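Students often ask why inverse folding is considered easier than folding. One informal answer: many sequences map to the same fold, so there is more than one right answer. In these notes we will look at a single instance of the problem. The structure comes first.
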């Protein structure tokens, strides 16, 4: 009995020491536009690097998360934003919604992935690029030639055969529209989009959906993410992933700490992790272009010279003009928007 009692006492002591360790976990609410299949690996990697933290995601598309965050600006509910477009974070920065913090190791990242405006509030993670997913099998049925440029998509043979993301709900949609306006000039850019609209079947609320539709043969061509194009082609879809001659728009995912978080020191540790090589190697499982030099890798069927074709993107202009551009776009083209779920 004595031994049995001592065993119970020892077990109780072990439980008492284990419970405080469990209690030390602090919940961090993280707003994100990461894809659903990324959430588990990211949570595991963050919690391994910062064991005191338990990550709770609030996930939606870039446009929806941006709108939600802005609606909550007087009473923020997030501790961090992670995996959200830099143009959105620049809006947050301008409104004073992000903490000033420069993570450890940031100076070793590619310059384009660092906040250059000051005060330092966000750090880039990876880049996603707008490309054309072109279904060669469907095009052959109607003898449609592959587009070499964006303007080729305005040709009459594409009428009703195109799909692209809605820029108000998809970061891919907005980076593409912003690139057209920057490279063509605003007057020519809107004129181009007027002509493109005539050929558009629908504007989706997902950045990857247009390529998926093209891969299935539902559309001849979809404007979508670079990585989705490579992925669908690797699965056997009859796709050509095209980099138009004028260059491609792009956006970067970024991380920032929400101003006023009650867990600032832990949020800083997560931000530090975000700038490490380990974190960037995780990013590279989903994106070919990442912030840490040498950490990225091109997957099979990734379009050659995609990174070299990225336009000189003015992220500040993209952020400052977002509301105006989306208002004008909606006025002109909302009639073909897909229904929202």
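Output (designed amino acids):
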């Amino acid at each position: 009995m004595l031994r049995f009692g001592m065993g119970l006492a020892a077990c109780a002591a072990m439980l008492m020491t284990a419970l405080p360790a469990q209690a030390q976990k602090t919940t961090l609410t993280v707003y994100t536009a990461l894809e659903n299949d990324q959430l588990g690996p990211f949570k595991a990697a963050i919690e391994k690097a910062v064991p005191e933290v338990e990550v709770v995601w609030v996930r939606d598309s870039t446009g929806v998360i941006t709108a939600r965050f802005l609606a909550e600006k007087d009473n923020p509910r997030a501790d961090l934003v992670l995996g959200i477009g830099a143009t959105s974070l620049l809006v947050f920065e301008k409104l004073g919604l992000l903490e000033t913090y420069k993570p450890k190791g940031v100076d070793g990242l590619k310059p384009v992935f660092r906040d250059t405006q000051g005060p330092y509030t966000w750090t880039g993670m990876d880049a996603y690029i707008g490309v054309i997913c072109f279904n060669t099998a469907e095009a052959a049925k109607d003898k449609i030639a592959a587009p070499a440029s964006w303007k080729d998509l305005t040709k009459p043979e594409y009428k009703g055969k195109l799909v692209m993301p809605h820029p108000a709900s998809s970061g891919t949609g907005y980076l593409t529209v912003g690139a057209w306006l920057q490279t063509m000039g605003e007057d020519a850019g809107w004129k181009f989009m007027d002509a493109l609209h005539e050929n558009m079947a629908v504007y989706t609320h997902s950045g990857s959906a247009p390529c998926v539709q093209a891969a299935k043969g539902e559309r001849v061509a979809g404007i979508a993410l670079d990585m989705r194009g490579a992925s669908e082609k690797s699965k056997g879809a009859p796709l050509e992933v095209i980099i138009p001659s004028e260059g491609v728009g792009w956006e970067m995912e970024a991380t920032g700490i929400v101003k006023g978080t009650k867990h600032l020191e832990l949020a800083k540790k997560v931000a530090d992790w975000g700038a490490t090589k380990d974190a960037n190697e995780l990013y590279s499982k989903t994106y070919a272009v990442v912030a840490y030099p040498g950490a990225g890798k091109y997957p099979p069927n990734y379009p050659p010279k995609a990174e070299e074709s990225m336009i000189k993107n003015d992220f500040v202009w993209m952020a400052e003009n977002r509301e105006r551009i989306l208002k004008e776009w909606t006025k002109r083209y909302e009639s073909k928007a897909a229904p929202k779920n």
